[in-house]
Design a protein that fits this description.
- The protein has two domains: about 140 residues, 3-Layer(aba) Sandwich (Rossmann fold), CATH 3.40.50.720; about 180 residues, Rossmann fold (3-Layer(aba) Sandwich), CATH 3.40.50.
- Strand 1, helix 1 and strand 2 form a beta-alpha-beta unit.
- It is α/β, with parallel strands linked by helices and about 350 residues long.
- This is Oxidoreductase.
- One of its GO terms (biological process) is L-serine biosynthetic process.
Length: about 350
């Protein structure tokens, strides 16, 4: 009987993992589950003192994780860390299924050394994030946030109906999409329904035939910056993209642009963004992810009236939970059946 250890949390519920695995593999399994307190308690980040310098964005005590996995052959999780020192204490472990887009809570080099197969769920929340990005764009360009905040303070902003103050429709604007991966492609597909002009920049991909035929343009970053009324970020964080929205790139943006970041905080130089928002060069911004999370209570951007902020929730949806659990369960089924994984890391 295969021994499976599941550590879920209050988003990726362990009972959903279990149900999907039993649905895919039958009930002739020895499954144990545990639920952690994330996201009600914050994530942790690589701690050399705990031997976790090769992992990041994890949740859980290493000793408790090892004790729970025990003699398990298969480990299913979202956020639990696995370091090289932990793997040495888990000789029975052969498969780790991480229900997120990247296994950044796992020391991948150590996993290869120990002969542990690691799989993940790329694009698990792509639809959720894409929908959120569209909502963010509309909230900024149609002044939804501005009107809401005024009403909460008892102020009726009838002046927002004035021609010189009211919002703009997407069908008259140019939207620049930086990054054309799992999320960026979905954002483009949704944007096309609004009739806006769409620019895409991504040096590593080509547009789909459908997007090309639909009038989407693949352009260089400088052209996207200078032409876009709205810019939405969807690249991975790499050495090339870290801090890519900074003083120089902001200066090349069209005055009055709206910036949306539902990707990753390190893409943005927040000091430069603050200056651009204060000056009005960037008219407004919607920020969903941050370089430091949670953000400090005295963070200057929290004080600006032309910024919408949300606590890194774009990828959170009920469908993300069930989809990620289904994909992890399929990887477990294939492992048990002696088949190669669909998404090896």
């Amino acid at each position: 009987m295969r021994k499976i250890a599941i550590i879920g949390d209050r988003f990726m519920l362990p009972e959903v993992f279990r149900a999907k695995i039993e649905e895919a593999c039958g009930d002739n399994l020895d499954i144990r589950t545990h639920e952690t307190a994330w996201p009600d308690e914050p994530m942790q980040f690589g701690d050399p003192a705990l031997g976790l310098d090769k992992v990041k964005e994890y949740f859980g005590d290493p000793d408790e994780v090892v004790d729970f996995i025990g003699d398990g052959e298969i480990f299913v999780t979202q956020l639990s860390p696995l370091s090289e020192a932990m793997m040495r204490r888990l000789p029975a472990l052969k498969l780790v299924a991480v229900s997120r887009g990247g296994p950044i809570n796992i020391d991948m080099a150590a996993a290869k050394t120990h002969g542990i197969t690691v799989v993940n769920v790329p694009g698990r929340n792509a639809s959720a994030v894409a929908e959120f990005a569209i909502g963010a764009i509309l909230a900024e360009t149609r002044l939804i946030r501005v009107g809401h905040e005024a009403l909460r303070k008892g102020e009726w902003r009838g002046d927002l109906y004035r021609a010189d103050r009211t919002g703009r429709e997407l069908n008259e604007m140019t939207v620049g999409v930086i990054g054309y991966g799992n999320i960026g492609t979905k954002v483009v597909r949704l944007l096309r329904a609004f009739g806006c002009r769409i620019l895409v920049t991504d040096p590593y991909v080509q547009l789909s035939a459908d997007d090309r035929n639909g009038g989407v343009e693949l352009v260089a970053l400088d052209e996207l910056l200078s032409r876009s009324d709205v810019i939405t970020l969807h690249p991975r964080v790499t050495e090339e993209t870290r801090g890519m929205i900074g003083k120089e790139t902001i200066a090349r943006m069209k005055p009055g642009v709206t910036l949306v970041n539902t990707a990753r905080g390190p893409l943005v130089d927040y000091d430069a963004l603050y200056d651009a928002l204060v000056s009005g060069h960037i008219a407004s911004a919607m920020l969903e992810t941050f370089a430091v999370e949670p953000v400090p209570a005295d963070w200057p951007l929290l004080q600006l009236p032309n910024v919408t902020l949300t606590p890194h929730i774009a990828g959170a949806s009920v469908r993300t939970v069930t989809y990620a659990a289904e994909q992890a369960a399929e990887e477990v089924r294939r492992y048990i059946a002696g088949l190669p994984p669909v998404n090896p890391c």
